[in-house]
């Protein structure tokens, strides 16, 4: 996410897997939300790390 200029912190989800937690604030602009959406789309199109390690 850093290449998209989005600050993130690693977390584990409810089932023990990776998770993305989004916490917009009053000062979060529509452009910020659009940038997050595009970053998540780009990341979700990548193959999982285990698929590329072969």
General description of the model:
- The chain has 54 residues and is mostly helical.
- Helix content is 35%, strand content 0%.
- The protein is globular, with a radius of gyration of 13 Å.
- The mean pLDDT is 78.
Compact summary:
The chain has about 55 residues and is mostly helical.
Topology, element by element:
Layout: H1 30-44, H2 49-52
- Proportion of residues in helical segments: 25-40%
Distance between the termini: 24 Å
SS class? mainly alpha
Radius of gyration in whole Å, from Cα?
Answer: 13 Å
Shape: globular
Q: Which parts are unreliable, with pLDDT below 50 for 5 consecutive residues or more?
A: none
What's the overall average pLDDT, rounded?
A: 78
Please provide the count of β strands: 0
* Element pattern in H and E: HH
Describe the sheet with the most strands.
none
Strand composition percent: under 5%
Number of helices: 2
